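Example 3.2
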Amino acid sequence: MTKIHDAIFIADSHYNSSRTQLENLLQTIKNSDTKNIFLVGDIFDFLSNDISYFRQKNNKIINIINSLSKQKNIIYLEGNHDFNIKDIFPDCRVVTREQQPYMFVLNEKKVALSHGDIFTAILYNIYTKLIRHKYIGKILNKIDVCGFISKIVEQKLKTKKICKEIKDFDTFAKKRLKFYDKYKADIVVEAHYHQGKRYKNYINLPSFACSKTYFTQEDMY
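Structure, written as tokens:
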């Protein structure tokens, strides 16, 4: 199991042309001493290697991440908005949904890290497999003439309200923790739900899109 001593955790930045703050953060990190960067899913509002429109639309941030990955150790956990991305980020350690949680040791604490859309209902699991299927992606890309479909998706994502508070967070956290019992982790960390809250040894990372904040190793304790 990988052991690390420093880390920055960025989650749910949902980068798009109207939400560009991620660029400044990545440039700041580039000049920092931190060696390990965790991108914990939904870094982009949408990105898949199968869809040409979004690869081109996100090219600037893709290039920044690829440049950063030559200097830092970047572990990129796929989310529900960014998947099939291994070929886009050749120097990042890409962790697919099926490979999550990603287990590592941070300052002697065993951590289970995932984007958060795992241990979900059967219908959602079927949906995630379908949208990740390479043939479906190729078909969608072929019929996406001049980005017609992608532009509709892009506009809907831009107007979607993603910053919502879970009222009974403690109860929610207890339920999520039970899914991780078999991993015997000291700390369970998820993103996806955009809460930026903690309950005992469960941490739900803040959404960078909502709060403009991220976590470091000091925030884990």
